Amino acid sequence: MLLPEMVEVWQQTLKWQPDEKQQQIFQRLYEEILLGNRQLNLTRITQPEEFWEKHLWDSLRGIVPLLQSMNSNQTIIDIGTGAGFPGLPVAIALPQSSVTLLDSTRKKINFLEQLITQLELKNVKTLIGRAEVIGKQFQHRKTYDIALIRAVGSASVCAEYALPLLKTGGLAILYRGHWTDEDTQVLKPVIEQLGAVIESIEQFTTPLSSSVRHCLYLRRLRSPTSDRIPHYLRSQLLSF
Ligand code: SAH
Fold it and tell me: Are 58 and 213 in contact (CB under 8 A)?
């Protein structure tokens, strides 16, 4: 099955469009996910237009600020990536960036490893583990410029997973469906506790099925106090 090209829609909505090579990689990505779906429960979204909208377009809608910036050589982590969303479309659209796909399920990571080799995606790595554990490891803590997270849990949980992985000044992008001002009021103190601020909240309508969605942009400002104490000392201090 052939993915639609949607050149006009890409341009009108994101002021961006895939070049010929990127379109080919999107097509191959789609085909490999359909094949993988026979063995693994990867996604319910399998029709070409739906795949285009919910997996490709939606993934890239969240990173509009990066698509238009010249500085695209960023380190990005996609937390709870599943079948590779939003991380894979982002890596394809931003070949200068370095993208880590994190998931706690080994079967999904094994599938993604194969996919990355088949699609020859040189800027993608995988990582197996739980976000709350990975976020405490020195190799990953305060390491990334951008953290993406879609359909993993409540916004507070997503923020708790994403923020520790970011460098100071880094950006967490939370992909959400429904969102209200009350949700913002609930989230605000959680974000502040984690040493970050809600920089912006964008509402948008998807171009084919007109569903309303939101993206939350959280900026990490400083380390929370407990974070400044090295981990090995913290456990000693707490045991006193
Ligand atoms: N982001 C993808 C997949 C969402 S499903 C998309 O939007 O299509 C949620 C995924 O998060 C699952 O693959 C699950 O294995 C993973 N996951 C759930 N909790 C996690 C955690 N604590 N750490 C890492 N991955 C997690």
Answer: yes
Helix (H) or strand (E) run with residue 236 in it: helix 231-239
* pLDDT score at 237: 47
CA gap 40, 223 in Å, rounded? 39
- Model confidence pLDDT, tens digit, residues 46-80: 999 999 999 999 999 999 999 988 777 899 999 99
Residue-wise pLDDT tens digits, 146-169:
999 999 999 999 999 999 999 999
Ligand 1: does its nearest atom lie under 6 Å from the Cβ of 154? no
Q: What is the largest CA-CA distance in the chain?
A: 63
Question: What is the spatial distance between Cα 190 and Cα 196, in angstroms, rounded to a whole number?
Answer: 9
Task: Please name every residue paired with 149 in a beta bridge, in sequence order, or none if there are none.
Answer: 79, 174
Low-confidence residues of the chain: pLDDT under 70: 223-240
Our answer on whether the CB atom of 82 is closer than 6 Å to any ligand 1 atom is yes
Cα separation, 24 vs 2, whole angstroms: 10
* Distance in angstroms between the alpha carbons of the first and the last residue of the chain: 63
Angle, helices 20-39/106-118, rounded to nearest 10 degrees: 140
Verify whether ligand 1 is closer than 6 Å to residue 144 (CB atom).
no
Residue bearing the CA closest to ligand 1, atom 12: 82
Q: Which CATH class is domain 70-239?
A: alpha beta
Contacts of 158 (CB under 8 A, 6+ apart): 79, 149, 152, 172, 174
Instruction: Look at residue 238 in the predicted model and tell me its pLDDT.
Output: 47
